[in-house]
Amino acid sequence: MVQGTTPTHTFYLPFSADALKEVMVIYAQNNEEIFHKDTAECTIGENQISLKLTQEETFLFKPSVNVQIQIRVLKTDGEAYVSRIMHVSVAKCLNCEVMS
After folding, report:
1. Residue 31, exposed/middle/buried by CB under 10 A (0-12, 13-18, 19+)?
2. Residue ranges in the chain assigned as alpha helix (H)
3. Angle at 21 between CA 14 and CA 82, to 5 degrees
4. What string of pLDDT tens digits covers the 100 residues of the chain?
5. Cβ-Cβ contacts under 8 Å for 98 (sequence gap 6 or more)
6. What's the rounded Cα separation, in Å, for the pair 53 and 17?
7. Residue 15, SS3?
8. DSSP 8-state assignment for residue 58
9. Is 65 helix (H, G, I), strand (E, B) or coil?
10. What pLDDT, on the 0 to 100 scale, is given for residue 34?
């Protein structure tokens, strides 16, 4: 991932998204949460969760430090699941101005 970009992240579920009650996607660096996205900020597909980060959000990440991403879900039956932590590298943008 590169600072200042607007990447779309897609995560695949081992069950139907119809069973989802709540979703949280957490972004952290050095084991400290930078921000998270909740259900309203995600697009839920048949068995996937997608979301788009903003330029402002990707500028929050320090370059050359992996971003940790983890998904938490609560199903309608009350079962809660947490994914393994995924690691994504961050590349620097030479200009930290948000383009509009």
Report:
1. exposed
2. 55-59
3. 50
4. 999 999 999 999 999 999 999 999 999 999 999 999 999 999 999 999 999 999 999 999 999 999 999 999 999 999 999 999 999 999 999 999 999 9
5. 4, 55, 56, 59
6. 21
7. coil
8. H
9. coil
10. 98
Output the pTM of the full model: 0.95
Structure tokens at 88: 């994504």
Q: Which two structure tokens, joined as six digits, stand for 15?
A: 């069950």
Q: Two tokens at 53?
A: 């980060």
Token duo for residue 68: 């940790």
CA distance 79 to 8: 27
* Token reading at 42: 């995600």
- How far apart (Å, rounded) are the C-alpha atoms in residues 43 and 79? 21
